[in-house]
Amino acid sequence: MSYYTSSYISDSSVPYSLDGRLISPYYRQPTPTLPQLGGIRHHEPSHLGYTHRSYNCVICLGDESSGGGLCVPTPRCTHVRSICVGCRTQYLNNVICVQGLTRVSCPQTGCHQQFSEADIERWGDSATKSRYYYLIGIRKTALQSLRSVQAASTPRNKRADEQASSEYMRINTKPCPSCAAPIAKYGDGCDHMRCAPPGGCGFEFCWLCLCDFEPVRQDGNHRHEKFCKHYRAIEP
Length: 236
Known about the structure:
Blueprint: H1 25-28, H2 34-37, E1 40-45, E2 51-56, E3 70-71, E4 83-84, H3 85-98, H4 117-123, H5 126-152, H6 155-172, E5 173-175, E6 182-184, E7 192-194, E8 204-206, H7 213-219
Helix pairs in contact: 3-5
């Protein structure tokens, strides 16, 4: 078979080989990638001479006639229909039930849209929706706990805690008469106190009148202060 070139074909805008055969521009272009196409496309000539583009699911590679037809994953996606209806349901199930995630992104490469709660409620199966709301409940509980901790650590609450601690120390502790270390007394126990080491100095004293307990031990209760209930006057 002979090949001829006309003046039209010899135009530099139409590529051809040295023997005169035309080279289709399609084969001279690099293969388009999935993100560029927004789905896998097939070019089919129509009866009117126009090119009809059909797309395939990015997950199962099925065409528009399978899996309930192709759709846009989320209403907010701006690319072409790139996933079949059946695969969208399975995709949601896998991400939520298997991976345990509640933030589900569009499976289309380069698209960063997320499935909303309304999307999951609309297109997820019963198992997916049940698992989703379970995971959301855990996240809400954890978030509430975190907020409680954060609220407790705010400057205002810290000041309130410090004031409460200071008030407790004022009411329930007394400084050691010897070294001024705070001494706490719990309950209605003995009033004979000791500033215990290693933090204390070892000084012994009366909780009520703060007198040195060594003279009391040697001489008797008249060494307490007179206002102290343990004071006993020396009998004549």
